[in-house]
Amino acid sequence: MTAEDTVHRVRHGGREARRRERSHKATGHGRPYITRNIPTYDILSEENLQKIEAAADRILAETGIEFRDDDVALDHWKKAGAKVDGVRVTFEPGMLREILKSAPAEFTQHARNPENSARIGGRNVVFAPAYGSPFVMDLDRGRRFGTLQDFENFIKLAQSSPWFHHSGGTICEPTDVPVNKRHLDMVYSHIRYSDRPFMGSVTAEERSEDSIDMARIVFGRDFVDENCVILGNVNVNSPLVWDGTMTKSLRAYARANQCAVVVPFILGGAMGPVTNAGAIAQSLAETMAGCALTQLERKGAPTVFGTFLSSMSLRSGSPTFGTPEPAIGSMVIGQLCRRLGLPLRCSGNFTTSKLPDAHAMTEGTMSMLAAIHCGANFILHSAGFLDGLLSMSYEKFMLDADLCGALHTYLDGVKIDDNQLAVDAFAEVGPGNHFFGCSHTMANYETAFWDSETADNEPFEKWEAAGQDDAATRANRLWKQHLREYEAPHLDEGVDKALREFVTKKKAAVPDAWY
Amino acid sequence: MTAEDTVHRVRHGGREARRRERSHKATGHGRPYITRNIPTYDILSEENLQKIEAAADRILAETGIEFRDDDVALDHWKKAGAKVDGVRVTFEPGMLREILKSAPAEFTQHARNPENSARIGGRNVVFAPAYGSPFVMDLDRGRRFGTLQDFENFIKLAQSSPWFHHSGGTICEPTDVPVNKRHLDMVYSHIRYSDRPFMGSVTAEERSEDSIDMARIVFGRDFVDENCVILGNVNVNSPLVWDGTMTKSLRAYARANQCAVVVPFILGGAMGPVTNAGAIAQSLAETMAGCALTQLERKGAPTVFGTFLSSMSLRSGSPTFGTPEPAIGSMVIGQLCRRLGLPLRCSGNFTTSKLPDAHAMTEGTMSMLAAIHCGANFILHSAGFLDGLLSMSYEKFMLDADLCGALHTYLDGVKIDDNQLAVDAFAEVGPGNHFFGCSHTMANYETAFWDSETADNEPFEKWEAAGQDDAATRANRLWKQHLREYEAPHLDEGVDKALREFVTKKKAAVPDAWY
């Protein structure tokens, strides 16, 4: 494409849209999830895996975990045979593994558009946007607090892209909405502007229940009782503490037969040891306990085994992201999780960079490839993450979406058959000739190669004449174009009305609170 | 570190130098090569590997390879039992594999500083700078033709970094030196400004021989006859053509018991099929033939099995780099190469980006991680590569060097022992407390985490106050600092004098030629 074409495409979009459609068709547009065609990367030996499991068992048996402000959780543990001393719970080796046997190895999270229902677990991979930033950024306006408008924009950008399978959850904090009412607007926006699976709130038990109630409006109460339609992401307060807010939300999701994603956040040297093996053992212990609690609340409820390892700068105490230690840690966690037979949430597109620059994508790509190789099934934080999760970036979102696209091709691996091996092409072309017009090329070129939307593969001179844009500048044009071209998926009017009434009623019932 | 510290460090370097030394000590400064502590990533089944091998055998037996302008090579093939018809050579299945059995699975490339001698093959990994760009770039002066000054600068930057193990070869073309004399200045510069292993010229048989003769001045004729001290990188003229210039250079290296690195460059859809499996089979066929030819010239000579797969934009015909297909292809090539028992050169830090931006590092990181996972032993193009290999970038070089550093930690994998598992730390710290000052942290923090030289992990506000630099801007400061602080390694005066006399005599012997 020429520089003029680029301008044309940005202005008019028609040609670009056709190209995109062709590309999506070729590379799997509209896949509700990816089924991996490459093996997981198993980094540790059986012997070393057993050593980590033994270390986790020792943490659980000797130090234990505190479950604070949740008497029901403590009761569950007592009944299950754990030793409960005040809020401290210790577990005999093997006990949690036994409880976890009732959790499904994979399950379907239903979307309101059945074509988008995603399979989570097994060989399947689901990409979801980043989660939880208070700030948003773009190249025009810099950093600012996120608003509901930003939140909706990111849902629309994700929905517009064929490279996500999930609308995510708290993509950014809509800080212009009171804290105690945000979840209502967030869940409504996911349902209204996306027809993919999504996540609900976990910041209080009643907000979790509101989120699930809204899902019941969409899917019907009976359906929800039997099928997973919403995820909640609950965090351990590492090291070795589960706060009541989290366990009550975890139990709310499990009670409704919905999926709690259980995630310790371990910043090595702060919330865990500075050594990778120790942080991994701790992560295993904390997640096993959380996932087991879902089964005590409701046997058979879906749950996801999560991990979030991070290193730190030991000069400044700042967290670091996208570094090699957590990438390697992810591979180990993947192996440990598969031995438990649970779906895995791991890694994402992490970075500490404050800009969508070289730093951001070095760390992000290493981190995302770790998620791919370790066998992660649900990859939250696939796109938009900047500044150690404090900011959601519009440009980074587009760059990351493009990487997610490339990873579709990566996960497809290499196909081996006579056509792919081009067995007859060599005789046709012969030594020293080119393959441009040969029959094998003509038969295969449309589906041949991943085609990036943000890379500039043009010759230097064309790129120079077109303004010498860097990738972030191209991404800036692209998100604006995608927002302009966004079309909302159909939503049944009755459902929409019922949802809006629910939100209005709930908002009216309590005064605004900003904490 | 604070913003003021950053300025201080850039200005004075003392604190930074100390930090760097500490960091290098922690993460393996001065290692002459990496011995991987993580497994290779084996992507294909035995059955599918055999299918690719069969496809390569069929290409070799039915279509064959042309060896142009080199009667000696054709004679070698006749004597070895291949069928030679004009310049076309065909090979019975199994014939090349039999010949390749005499090539060493690993070997040492000696450096003039014995501490830097590198082991190539087996579980060892060697990083070398990019190779062959006519242009250089930096943020101050943009793109321009490379000069001998640039060439020397890049050698100095590589030598200054603990993250390379090899000085490389034609890091950029010194276009201010006549083409027929460049190799003399390049080889001299590698020897003068670096004390690591290096590569010689391959652009003509006599230039290869000059390169080897200069190595003989440094190491002694007898030593060179028995040990590898120089590599030459020879390219197949894909598809299925070996030009005489290349085979004569290949034979010159082999004849001297030096190492020819054998590399097809296959741009899918142009020099090979658009399908990955076909390009891989072709690459296998072409490289087997080249590596086997080294053994016919001198049985037992070291050789490296190389590959360079690339995809293309089927819209514009432009080559693309750092895309998922070649990354996946690298893993397959790695498995095929290990079945041949040869050292592997594969992948590098590839991109089509014209700037050291997000685009560059997305592609570069995917591409470098493919090299790491596929088990590559000699990773040429580890640093500096921009614009599809047309430009060597000062800033990208620094960013890539930093990634090479991170990959040292990555390749070290995860260690599992009682200290790494932090078995006693959990009891000491207990639930809800932090690990900052605990005895396990104090005992381990100095060697705990990879510490990037180009990332900015500071809080947003500190980064903002320090000028909001992106990674490329930081890299721009860094290469200037490294050049200022560079100190040449000791070189024996007699050797230096003999090298300079050799260069002067050779240059005087023939008129300048610019082709």
Automatic annotation (TrEMBL), chains A, B:
Biased composition annotated in UniProt, kind: Basic and acidic residues:
1-19
Q: Which domain of life is it from?
A: Bacteria
InterPro entries tied to this protein: MttB-like_sf (IPR038601), MTTB_MeTrfase (IPR010426)
Any single biological process term in GO = methanogenesis
Reported EC number(s) for this entry are 2.1.1.-
Q: Where is this region: Disordered?
A: 1-33
Could you list this entry's UniProt keywords, alphabetically sorted.
Methyltransferase, Transferase
Coiled-coil positions are none
Q: Which GO terms describe its molecular function?
A: methyltransferase activity
Which family does the record claim for this protein?
Belongs to the trimethylamine methyltransferase family.
What is the recorded name of this protein? Methyltransferase
Q: Which organism is it from?
A: Albidovulum aquaemixtae
